[in-house]
């Protein structure tokens, strides 16, 4: 009887230890990243960051120094050609111009006086010459008359030279006065103002920067390993981060032969069909396409991340559609060629449109069921 009482306890322990059959828990499917095998013409492309600049951008400065008396424009103002931008106080230069005019008048008076003396000296010389030919005057009197005539001629010539110099000084001083007025050399927009009213501005100091509104350009710097492939009239594609959703066609208009301060080469790109939304100073991404394609025909490219290498050579995990929206990762040997921007060239093992795993390849197993990460 004592043994019969132990049986129920033994059966209970047996059940608790797994004597009953239970279903194994279902593990979740592994989510993986993937890419597609694509065809390509064999060319490569690369984007470089640049900055929009105006096709015509000129710092305007006075040709003389002085105190700013008036500023006729403000930042962002549109100007027409010949419009007054700023003026300097012209008082000192006007005084110099007046002095030059006075010197010119004095020189004119000297010329008039010298010409009067020359007429008298010529008459005396002619009269003395006739008398000397008739032996009516001595040689010394004749020589004196001729000397006075020559001296009067020299004085008139010197006075005329002084008059010409004074005239040039008058014109120069008038130019200096006119230089106190700064005008726009072309129609455009004031993109920078460097000075304020009553500030002293030296000769050549930038007062404002005037930029054209039409035909903006992009300045971009290219590395030395790419500059040799850039030519004028080369077509590019331009995108602006501040103007998402649209791309603009562009054409290379200038290619620097020498590098600047940095180890890069400036390249200027003209924007086709530019809109008013594109303004100087905006960032731009310029995409250049290098190469002329593959002579043997289109290339088959697989993503760089999809290719792995094992004891038997290079392979990818080819994702084949399964049931219920899942995929099966099958190990697929591939033969690859050159590396291109879009991936490795594939000569055997894959077809266009195939899906291949691009992440977590080391943790995949041949025949593993997975789901694709959107």
TrEMBL record:
<dbReference type="InterPro" id="IPR058792">
    <property type="entry name" value="Beta-barrel_RND_2"/>
</dbReference>
<protein>
    <submittedName>
        <fullName>RND family efflux transporter MFP subunit</fullName>
    </submittedName>
</protein>
<dbReference type="Pfam" id="PF25954">
    <property type="entry name" value="Beta-barrel_RND_2"/>
</dbReference>
<dbReference type="InterPro" id="IPR006143">
    <property type="entry name" value="RND_pump_MFP"/>
</dbReference>
<comment type="similarity">
    <text>Belongs to the membrane fusion protein (MFP) (TC 8.A.1) family.</text>
</comment>
<feature type="domain" description="Multidrug resistance protein MdtA-like barrel-sandwich hybrid">
    <location>
        <begin position="63"/>
        <end position="206"/>
    </location>
</feature>
<dbReference type="InterPro" id="IPR058625">
    <property type="entry name" value="MdtA-like_BSH"/>
</dbReference>
<dbReference type="Pfam" id="PF25917">
    <property type="entry name" value="BSH_RND"/>
</dbReference>
<feature type="domain" description="CusB-like beta-barrel">
    <location>
        <begin position="218"/>
        <end position="289"/>
    </location>
</feature>
């Amino acid at each position: 009887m004592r043994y019969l009482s132990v049986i129920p306890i033994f059966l209970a322990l047996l059940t608790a230890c797994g004597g009953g059959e239970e279903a194994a828990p279902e593990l979740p499917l592994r989510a993986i990243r993937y890419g597609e095998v694509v065809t390509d013409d064999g060319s490569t492309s690369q984007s470089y960051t640049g900055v929009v600049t105006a096709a015509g951008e000129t710092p305007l400065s006075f040709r003389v120094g002085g105190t700013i008396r008036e500023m006729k424009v403000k930042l962002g103002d549109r100007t027409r050609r010949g419009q007054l931008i700023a003026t300097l106080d012209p008082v000192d230069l006007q005084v110099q111009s007046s002095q030059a005019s006075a010197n010119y008048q004095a020189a004119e008076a000297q010329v008039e006086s010298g010409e009067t003396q020359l007429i008298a000296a010529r008459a005396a010389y002619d009269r003395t010459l006739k008398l000397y030919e008739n032996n009516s005057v001595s040689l010394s009197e004749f020589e004196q008359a001729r000397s006075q005539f020559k001296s009067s001629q020299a004085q008139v010539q010197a006075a005329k030279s002084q008059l010409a110099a004074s005239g040039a000084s008058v014109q120069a001083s008038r130019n200096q006065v006119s230089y106190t007025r700064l005008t726009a050399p072309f129609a455009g927009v004031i993109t920078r103002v460097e000075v304020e009213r009553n500030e002293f501005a030296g000769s050549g100091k930038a007062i404002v920067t005037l930029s054209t509104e039409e035909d903006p350009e992009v300045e971009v710097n290219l590395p030395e390993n790419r500059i040799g492939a850039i030519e004028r009239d080369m077509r590019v594609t331009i995108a602006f981060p501040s103007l998402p959703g649209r791309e603009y066609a562009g054409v290379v208009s200038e290619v620097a032969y020498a590098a600047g301060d940095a180890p890069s080469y400036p390249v200027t790109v003209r924007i086709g069909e530019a809109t008013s939304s594109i303004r100087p100073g905006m960032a731009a991404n310029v995409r250049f396409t290098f190469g002329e394609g593959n002579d043997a025909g289109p290339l088959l490219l697989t993503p760089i991340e999809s290719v792995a290498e094992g004891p038997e050579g290079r392979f990818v995990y080819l994702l084949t559609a399964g049931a219920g929206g899942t995929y099966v990762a099958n190990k697929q040997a591939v033969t690859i060629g050159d590396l291109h921007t879009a991936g490795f060239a594939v000569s055997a093992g894959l077809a266009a449109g195939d899906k291949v795993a691009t992440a977590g390849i080391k943790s995949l197993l041949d025949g593993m069921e997975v789901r694709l990460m959107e």
